[in-house]
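Study both lines:
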Amino acid sequence: MKKIKKTISKIISSLADCIVPTLPILIGAGMLKVIVIIFGPTVLNVLKEEMPTYAVLNFVADAGYYFMPIYVGISTAEVFKTNKYMGAFVGGMLLSPQFVELVDSGTKLSFLKISIASTSYGNQVLPSVIAVAIMSYIYNFLNKYVKGNLKALITPLVTILIMIPIAFCEIGPLGVLMSDALVDLIMKLKDLGAIGYGIMCAIIPFITIAGLGGANLSAMLILAASGCDPILFFSNVLYNNILGFVTLALYFKKKDSQTLAAAITSAIGGTSEPAIFGIVMKDIRALSALVIGDFVAGLYAGIMSVKTYAMASFGTFGIITTIGPDSSILHAGIAMVLGCVTGFIICFVTHKSTHE
């Protein structure tokens, strides 16, 4: 049992080490999203959707997340002590514009007659981390044992040729299987009532860590086809806000500016990656506080049948999506306060200040 715990701890620590160096990018992009939300049509309406400035701010902020496979490809290569430019290459091939275009068009792809999963890797962390970790062993082995003048040619070429089927034909299909299983699980949780709502909210941190945001969106679209989303969208709004308050509790203990920025980015901007990957994931007490707060909030939202009727940011202002004929923004607000207070108190009480 101790060995299993040690292995899990090492995996989580390694994953965090791969992502922490990208925090300035994530926080910068997240805070830019906060500016867009506050000054955009949702709040102050200073920046209107048709304005070029609004469009520029949006696509610049999106770039901070869409190219995550490249960013974490570099940091993962550094963690596994291999060539960081090869790490960037492996992350970049998952985002090749031609590949994305073929996937979007529904074209069936294969490599040496092995089927390639038609999936998108934009904004995802885990596929790139796994691929680059595997690549490090291949590249380092070849770099050590290939001798002579052809080393500079053979090592990168053979590495990439081996990585193509691993990345696209093995890691990709695994992600598709996990996404399909998650969509099925969400549909089952929807039928469990308030308990299902609570569980849904509580597992979202792990959905984010596993890089299954695509499945999250797919399920939202399926649920929205009925005219409202009875469980998933608001669970994400609750998760981001509760995560923000759990991270805020850590800020009051650590007095670290990066922690405060991550808290604001999550709660207001609706972007959880800086807080969950960089701070909470590697702290079991903070993660436990988050999960408990999520469950409490989700349970109340389920009891009161809180639904959403539109798509918006997962941040604080996402609460307005609960305005509709059979839902109540009042109960949505109570659920949010319950979860945020619960998560904050548990995290604050279970942590000591850094100066203590």
Q: What stands out?
A: The longest strand covers residues 109-111. The CA atoms of residues 280 and 287 lie 6 Å apart. The mean pLDDT is 92.
